[in-house]
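Aim 2 progress. For NAD(P)-dependent dehydrogenase, short-chain alcohol dehydrogenase family, the working sequence is reproduced below.
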Amino acid sequence: MKPNPPIDNALRVALVTGSTSGIGAAIARVLSGAGYAVVLHSRNSADTGRAMAAEMKQAIYVQADLACEADRVRLVDEAIAAWGQLDVLVNNAGISRVIPHSDLASATSAVWHELNEINVVAPFHLVALAESALRDAARYRRAGSVVNISSHAGVRPKGASIPYAVSKAALNHMTRLLAVSLGPDIRVNAVAPGLVDTPLTAEWKEAQELWRDRAPMRRAASPEDIANAVAMLVDSDYLTGEVLLSDGGLNLT
Ligand code: NAD
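Predicted structure tokens for this construct:
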């Protein structure tokens, strides 16, 4: 859907995918605190999404399965229709599969396709769907940016599984390719977290020990640490094509 005629106003609208839990919820809260109108999204958890939206100053919730192309189109249409503009897209939604890297047989074609579809193809498709609105944001409000949430596993040979790590490496490279093709209107960056304290990683004792013992920051990230990195990239007028490794310095040791 085309956005309404652009208005040179102070409103900034951000769509954050996968934002009813974990890192996405923190990103939505930090952007809301910074004055953004926020479009919350998840595949399930509609009640949580609506409750979060009710708590924020300006927010709506949209349910959509990013495995489904029609849902992607509807999500971006509803996000733009809510305030007639879209300034920021945060591709946070992602999936992981834990498979030991030595267990090649378990990394089936089905696993590769599933991870690639959600972690690579869906973010690309959402950028394509939002492109026109993001260009309007650049033209009329000096805004217009995308932040992809990838992983340190896409930078270093690590991570929950080889298909997961490869999907995040692809997302990092896509970030750089899109920064080139969409500049100067739309800036495209990524945040690549290491271990983040979320319900998903609560039982990952070995990884927690690694961060406590070896990372210069001596701890995993909080979701807010990652959200603040996203806010910094969104706030910039110049940074583009950056993959900001946010691992507390673990990669240095
Ligand atoms: P999470 O499970 O809390 O969040 C994932 C979100 O993605 C959920 O809101 C879910 O609704 C959404 N999602 C998944 N599949 C979807 C689909 N088919 N359609 C629509 N939405 C879908 O996990 P999280 O840890 O907060 O992860 C957020 C992002 O951060 C992911 O991209 C993940 O790969 C990345 N990441 C997480 C960590 C970590 O330690 N938690 C580390 C590095 C990168």
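The pocket of nicotinamide-adenine-dinucleotide is lined by residues 18, 20-24, 42-43, 65-67, 92-96, 118, 149, 151, 193, 195-196, 198, 200-201 (CB under 6 Å). This observation will guide construct design in the next reporting period.
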